[in-house]
Amino acid sequence: MEGGCCTSSTNTSSSTATATTQKRKHSRQQNQEKPYRGIRMRKWGKWVAEIREPNKRSRIWLGSYSTPIAAARAYDTAVFYLRGPSARLNFPDLIYQEDVLRDVSAASIRKKATEVGAKVDALQTARHASPEDNSRVLLSEKPDLNKYPENSDEE
Predict the structure, then answer these.
(1) DSSP the chain
(2) Lesser CB count within 10 Å: N end or C end of the chain?
């Protein structure tokens, strides 16, 4: 009986080690998919942010953004106004502490967070759009595929 007891304990410890390894793998995968706190990615590629209200079951919807940075900044704004300067932020250097929010209701926090998120989203999408892409969009003429291209280099 003693041998059966010992083997079962080693099996339990090895299964615990396997479970721990699987949890670590899962957490690494989550970190890759979810690079910032308080955001998640929709199936179609948009990033959304929301936060739970303190001492309530309800959540404050902070918006849907095209970049994870914009969603994270919206989350940071909301968590800062809910929990104060001791809150764990994604970008602690970028929070503006001079701007005091007088009304700390869910609606005012949502409004302020979506303003910040929209500004960052606009800046991020403008930064990623290259001038070449914009010039291609502006050209509405379709090239004649039967002609050889003209050389712009005159020698």
Answers:
(1) -HHHHHHHHHHHHHHHHHHHHHHHHHHHHHHHH--STTEEE-TTS-EEEEEEPTTSS-EEEEEEESSHHHHHHHHHHHHHHHHGGGS--S-GGG--SSS--S--SHHHHHHHHHHHHHHHHHHHHHHHS-HHHHHHHH--PPP-TTSPPPP----
(2) C
Question: What CATH number has the domain bearing residue 74?
Answer: 3.30.730.10
In-domain check, residue 93: yes
Distance CA 84, CA 81 (A): 6
Is residue 74 in some structural domain?
yes
pTM of this prediction exceeds 0.70? no
- Residue 12 has which token pair? 């339990």
Q: What is the pLDDT along the chain (155 residues), one digit of tens a residue?
A: 555 555 444 555 555 666 666 666 555 555 556 689 999 998 988 999 999 988 888 899 999 999 999 999 999 999 998 888 888 999 888 876 656 666 778 888 899 899 989 888 888 888 776 555 554 444 455 666 676 666 666 55
